[in-house]
Design brief:
mainly alpha; about 65% helix; single chain; about 55 residues; 2 helices
């Protein structure tokens, strides 16, 4: 089912009239997830290196 641009604009105008903000402000970035992934990757790489060293040395 095709929706025309006019219908989209009508829905957007209705949302604005009812007080819904279609473009909310962006949320502040949280570095907790990034730090968790980084620490996990470091532990994983250290584990691989230690296994490699134990095998060949």
């Amino acid at each position: 089912m095709m929706v025309t641009i006019e219908e989209d604009l009508e829905q957007l105008a209705a949302a604005l009239r009812s007080g819904i903000d279609p473009f909310p402000p962006s949320k502040p970035k949280r570095s907790l997830g990034r730090m968790a992934i980084a620490s996990f990757m470091i532990i994983l790489m250290l584990s691989w290196v230690s296994k490699l060293l134990m095998r060949f040395l």
